[in-house]
Amino acid sequence: MKKILLILNFWRLIIPGIIYMTNSQIKAVICEDLKRISYALPENTSEILKFIYALVWNKPYRAVFYYRIQNYKICRGVQELFMANKREIEISGKIDEGMSIFHGQGTIVHCECAGKNFSVWQNVTIGRNPSKVADNGRDIPIIGNNVNIYTGSIVAGGITIGNNVDIGAGSVVLKDIPDNCVVAGNPAKIIRVKDNV
Question: Fewer beta carbons below 10 Å: N end or C end of the chain?
């Protein structure tokens, strides 16, 4: 049944297909993002079909795709007429490939930058905190590689989150977090340092 619906939706995917096929830089980033949600995609099929499947059936991935094509303002605007963006997801900042958003309800990601393989769950807020301004005047976070921010967490201010960090559900992070650790709580505290990372 999903294959039939996918075929019927094909006309809505002409613009994303053209961008995917003609821009190798965006295609490479899109493929890395798709790898992070491979569990939800059909097996033994081409990358373009996985991409189309994700756009139709995975609304959080659709929000990530629209973030990736933000410089194609006209194409993005026309595409959103055919296939609406998930409005409860906001994304801004420079985010490297491998981004994944799970569920996505009430998810706000406003960071200076985030590294590779950045994962966010639902009801997460990442953003400004005017009372936590960094020395350089920045009031939004910098996030490292391989960071997971779980359900209901808040990360705010001009702070830096290191590489290989897990932020537990419901945590409030208002201070810098070093590499290779797990934090949890309100306020967040390091509860474990990761070995062999």
Answer: N
Task: Write out the H or E segment, with its range, that includes residue 154.
Answer: strand 154-156
Q: pTM of the predicted model, to two decimals?
A: 0.89
141-186 pLDDT per residue, tens: 999 999 999 999 999 999 999 999 999 999 999 999 999 999 999 9
CA distances to 20, 107, 110, 176, 182 from 94, in Å = 20, 17, 9, 19, 24
The pLDDT tens digits for 128-150 are 988 877 778 889 999 999 999 99
Q: Which residue type occupies 139?
A: D
Sheet architecture: strand order including 189-193 = 100-101, 119-120, 148-149, 165-167, 181-184, 189-193
53-64: average pLDDT? 91
